[in-house]
């Protein structure tokens, strides 16, 4: 990972020194090109590793670093009814109170981080002609899967966004800063994932794989209401040998287990490859005063419907009994209040796609936007998830609300809740009620985040802001 980072830094320095016209103007990182690199399989493979490295994000406190996945919970869980801050202070509290500002540094961090991932993918794709016949398809499949994943998150969070499908120069401002319709972004995502499905196999799970591409593409189709397409893809994944872990806790602390389809991997006690979000969610061991704390509403849902999952999903803060912490990602799986290693250098992998999610998406695809289903295939998938949670009574029908509730308690604190509410068409209703109950400021325009003001400034007015933000 370090070697790739050094290469990127050298390319940035070279580019800055060679472009006098734009030297003083902040240029998007997606404009950098490594003309003398990526000439063979070995170098292209490093380029692919560099994309994963971009998804990991930097384990640092510098606001200029890309933190990517490590700050995603702010934009997702903390904008749902699942989590909040401990102190209701600072930029973090803007997410829970639905008062996010266009100058919010966390939003800007995430936005630029994922466009950096897209840049890294574009570099690999642009140099595929230099790959051997034996490896070209795999490199293309991985790069396009990861690019599609980045665009899928961005379009769901920001709506219409710039579509950068190649390495561009700093002078191509129309490409960099022209917002393209969300429907066009989704067409691009589907194309990338369809390429990944035919280009990849299942030899590299939990990294990009055919099953991962199929599962992610199915979620895209569910988002768009293409239920039949989603069902076919999900049933293909279900034939791929995945299985639920018998112990729910093992999903998160037995890495590369049979339930994991795609995960962003971290290693403990290495500053370049560890993560700090695990520590951030604890009290007085992270770099904040505590974030992603469990809401009263999420705790009530887990107590009522979580079954055996509840004890592994949240815990009472041992130091402040009125607070409740997310328990799925305690640093390195250590469950006590004390940690043998530095919790700010945690090695817990971040799970993006797992088999329980596939089973519940399968129910959603069969329900096809309806209010309920009694289809045998849907009941079978739903029952598997319920059985693992300790609810073994036979299911005879499933309502839309029951499916949404099951997704909430099964996938709690895994950055799924906000997207689920939007996809099920109930986000405005649920979040409005949640906001009223807690004295927050939710408006319908809060379903999209603001385009970072820094990007609008760099664009010299080409980028337009989302409604509801100054």
UniProtKB/TrEMBL annotation:
Origin superkingdom: Bacteria
Q: Which residues form a coiled coil?
A: none
Q: Which Pfam families match?
A: SusD-like_3, SusD_RagB
User: Where in the cell is the protein located?
Assistant: Cell outer membrane
Q: Which residues form the SusD-like N-terminal domain?
A: 44-222
The record's listing under InterPro entries reads: SusD-like_N (IPR033985), SusD_RagB_dom (IPR012944), TPR-like_helical_dom_sf (IPR011990)
Record keywords: Cell outer membrane, Membrane, Signal
RagB/SusD domain segment(s): 320-469
Where would you say this protein principally sits, based on its record? membrane
Q: Which SUPFAM superfamilies match?
A: TPR-like (SSF48452)
Q: Which family does it belong to?
A: Belongs to the SusD family.
- Please state what the protein is called: RagB/SusD family nutrient uptake outer membrane protein
């Amino acid at each position: 990972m370090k070697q790739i980072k050094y290469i990127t830094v050298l390319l940035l320095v070279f580019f800055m020194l060679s472009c006098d016209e734009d030297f003083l103007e902040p240029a998007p990182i997606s404009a950098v090109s490594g003309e003398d690199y990526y000439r063979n399989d070995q170098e292209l493979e490093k380029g692919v590793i560099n994309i994963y490295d971009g998804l990991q994000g930097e384990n640092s406190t510098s606001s200029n670093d890309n933190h990517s996945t490590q700050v995603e919970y702010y934009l997702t869980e903390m904008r749902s009814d699942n989590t909040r801050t401990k102190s209701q202070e600072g930029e973090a509290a803007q997410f829970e109170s639905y008062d996010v500002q266009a100058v919010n540094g966390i939003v800007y961090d995430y936005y630029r981080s994922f466009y950096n991932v897209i840049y890294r993918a574009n570099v690999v794709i642009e140099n595929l002609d230099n790959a051997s016949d034996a490896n070209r398809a795999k490199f293309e499949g991985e790069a396009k899967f990861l690019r599609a994943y980045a665009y899928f998150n961005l379009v769901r969070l920001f709506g219409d966004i710039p579509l950068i499908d190649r390495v561009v120069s700093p002078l191509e401002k129309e490409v960099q800063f022209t917002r393209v319709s969300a429907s066009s972004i989704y067409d691009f995502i589907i194309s990338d994932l369809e390429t990944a499905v035919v280009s990849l196999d299942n030899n590299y799970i939990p990294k990009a794989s055919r099953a991962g591409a199929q599962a992610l593409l199915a979620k895209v189709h569910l988002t768009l209401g293409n239920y039949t397409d989603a069902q076919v893809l999900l049933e293909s994944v279900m034939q791929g040998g995945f299985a639920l872990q018998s112990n729910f806790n093992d999903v998160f602390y037995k890495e590369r287990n049979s339930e994991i389809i795609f995960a962003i991997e971290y290693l403990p006690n290495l500053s370049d490859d560890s993560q700090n979000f695990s520590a951030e969610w604890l009290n007085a061991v992270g770099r904040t005063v505590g974030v992603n704390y469990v809401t009263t509403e999420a705790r009530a849902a887990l107590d009522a419907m979580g079954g055996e999952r509840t004890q592994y999903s949240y815990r009472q803060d041992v130091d402040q009994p009125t607070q409740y912490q997310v328990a799925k990602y305690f640093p390195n799986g250590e469950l006590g209040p004390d940690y043998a290693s530095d919790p700010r250098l945690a090695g817990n992998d971040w799970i993006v796609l797992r088999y329980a999610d596939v089973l519940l998406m399968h129910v959603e695809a069969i329900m096809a936007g309806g209010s309920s289903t009694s289809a045998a295939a849907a009941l079978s998938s739903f029952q598997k998830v319920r059985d693992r949670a300790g609810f073994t009574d036979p299911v005879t029908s499933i309502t839309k609300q029951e499916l949404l509730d099951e997704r909430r308690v099964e996938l709690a604190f895994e950055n799924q809740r906000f997207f689920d509410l939007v996809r099920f068409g109930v986000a405005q209703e649920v979040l409005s009620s949640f906001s009223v109950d807690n004295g927050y400021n939710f408006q319908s325009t809060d379903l999209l985040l603001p385009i970072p003001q820094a990007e609008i400034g760099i664009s010299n007015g080409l980028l337009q802001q989302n409604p509801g933000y100054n």
